[in-house]
Amino acid sequence: MLSSLVFGRKGPSGFSWSSTAEEVTAGISAAGLTAIVTGASSGIGAETARTLALRGAHVIMAVRSLPAAQALRDAVLAQAPEAKLDIMELDLSSMASVRAFASEFIAKELPLNILINNAGVMAIPFALSKDGIEMQFATNHVGHFLLTHLLLNTMKKTSHESNVEGRIVNVSSEGHKLAYGEGIHFGKINNETVYSSIRAYGQSKLANILHANELARRFKEESVNITANSLHPGAIITNLLRYHSILDVIHRTLGKLVLKNAQQVKASLGSTYDSNLYEPSEKARTLKPMPRGYAEFAASSPDHLIIVTFVVLHGWKYGMLILSRKIH
């Protein structure tokens, strides 16, 4: 009774904490739109892909686990046989995989209206990716950074030719406030001796916000018909805490009383972090513009994988991370 009074109360939007994505999108058509959703085989990504497909979008499920994605696709098609879902393999911790995915998608000559950078890992034990990058930073930020810029020309072309506004969404977190004191540990990202799993997660989520903010600034400056936003999805019961057994048990049991499930996430996104809609933390708010050209160079270098990410530290200076690996 109490939970229904508290969590069932509708807000200004007409929806409540317990509203589902299907309820919120009822009557909305996404027909004619093409969307890529990373991490679409489970949790938030799966529900996002499922709902977009039910509303008529052509959804590309960018996933590591092909069997899990196929199971979801089969379930959606059983519910809506006309739904359009394709599965493509993508490991965001591998820059070679990101490049291969982008090349394969571009070769299909499909339009791209929506890119939802959702996949991620949280508070995992220290590990380096195949490219020698701390795994949370590689998966949550660097992989999505590269993917976005490799697909950006396709999105610009689609929005221009269709006159339909494109959308880029980075799934961030209130956890960005838990980043290291100076924001992002440039020069120490791969240093295991100072590694904190929670703070490393926070710095990757902070990078998501700064990336979206910079994209939004550039789109406005260049009059590009695309919006870029980052968001906090709220407290959701997913498998993100699978590396912390005690916390995972708590959040899957007691958490059911106060947390949303994946079906409710899109209905009640906790916060959006763009300059027009929400006031993020000081770390995310003190963005200064990136020097032009670096993102494009990072996305187009043919011989070396060079990803240059600029973010703000302390609100007054740039931090720079250069990750260079020869592709053999």
TrEMBL record:
InterPro entries, A to Z: NAD(P)-bd_dom_sf, SDR_fam, TIC32
Gene3D superfamilies linked to this entry: NAD(P)-binding Rossmann-like Domain
Entry-linked Pfam families = adh_short (PF00106)
- Signal peptide location in the record? none
- What PANTHER family does the record tag this protein with? SHORT-CHAIN DEHYDROGENASE TIC 32, CHLOROPLASTIC-LIKE (PTHR48476), SHORT-CHAIN DEHYDROGENASE_REDUCTASE (PTHR48476:SF2)
What family does the Swiss-Prot or TrEMBL record give for this protein?
Answer: Belongs to the short-chain dehydrogenases/reductases (SDR) family.
Q: What is this protein called?
A: Uncharacterized protein
Q: Which organism is it from?
A: Eleusine coracana subsp. coracana
Instruction: Identify the coding gene.
Output: gb23401
